[in-house]
Amino acid sequence: MNDIVSLKNVAFRRGENEILQGIDWRIQPDEHWGILGLNGSGKTSLLNIVSGYHFPSSGEVEVLGNLFGKTNLPELRKKIGFVSSSLDRFADFFNKEKVERVIVSGKFASFGIYEQVAPEDWEKADHLLESLRLSYLKGKPYHLLSEGEKRRVLIARALMSDPKMLILDEPCSGLDILSREQFLGVLEEVVGSKCHIIYVTHHIEELVKEITHVLLLKDGEIVAKGPKEDVLKPELLSETYKVPVTVRWEQNRPWLAVKEETTIR
User: Fold this and answer.
1) Which residue ranges does the record assign to the ABC transporter domain (predicted)?
2) Please, what sign has the CA dihedral across residues 29, 230, 183, 85?
3) Phi, then psi, of 131 in degrees rounded to 5
């Protein structure tokens, strides 16, 4: 099978600013990737390229078998789900709806339902609620949900269109520990649906067992990439975060700490 994502010597510039340079990265079938890096490292630009919202300044990009420059990018975007705390800016729409209507809107990639909804679409929304262990939310107004429940409903919304890839951009930002763990618990179901995950975070403890590989970005360049256990090393993370850190593993999850003797300047 072809690569899910293939970037070859990709660069991205805005005016005089070189935001990404020399990016070589492949996602192969059955791989699920985490992306780590400081603010300004190029994570958002990389996501925008992969999801077809930015065209690279140079280099070759192929996503889900679609070679940029020879494909319809709006059609490609329909195959990619997206969940982010940034979706909170659409709260005015979500808060007026019940949970299942929020989910069904994902089929149309719209914030509101303006087309005929087939009975099988409502059935699919029910199935997603059940598979993500959210059936108890059926019929509830979205605005009454906890923040963690809202993020999990947004995953169901993203899966409504049967995406081949799901991008999770800091999805646990602002969640408490319980809500975060409940959110991370649904990733197993996402992987089981044969959907490839790209998970962006600042917190390595969110890279649960479903995330198999990691890419480290620093100042627009790749520090390291590969299997999670090979990349989440203290020396590589210290270089990425520009501060000395230690890493420990508990129950197959990594946890990071800044070295005590470190003085931050």
Assistant:
1) 5-244
2) negative
3) -70, -30
Print pLDDT tens along the chain (265 aa). Answer: 589 999 999 999 988 889 999 999 999 999 999 999 999 999 989 999 998 888 999 999 999 999 999 988 888 888 898 887 666 666 778 888 899 988 988 886 655 555 567 788 889 999 999 988 899 999 999 999 988 898 899 889 889 888 999 999 998 988 899 989 988 988 988 888 889 999 999 999 999 999 999 999 999 999 999 999 999 999 999 999 999 999 999 988 999 999 876 555 5
- Which is nearest to 75 in space by CA: 84, 90, 64, 83? 64
Task: Locate all alpha helices (DSSP H) within 85-227, ordered by sequence.
Answer: 91-94, 99-104, 119-131, 147-159, 177-184, 187-192
Angle in degrees, 0-180, between the axes of helices 147-159 and 119-131, rounded to the nearest 10:
130
The 8-class DSSP code of residue 138 comes to: T
Q: Read off the tokens for 258.
A: 């800044």
Q: Copy the structure tokens of residue 139.
A: 């019929």
Q: How far apart are CA 94 and CA 70, in angstroms?
A: 35
Going from the C-alpha of 231 to that of each of 18, 34, 216, 251, the distances in angstroms are 25, 11, 8, 18
- 25 neighbors 225 (Cβ within 8 angstroms): yes
Residue 44: enclosing H or E segment and its boundaries? helix 43-50
Q: Residue 100: what are its φ and ψ, rounded to 5°?
A: -65, -30
Report which DSSP code applies to 30. Answer: T
Provide the token pair at 245.
């850190």
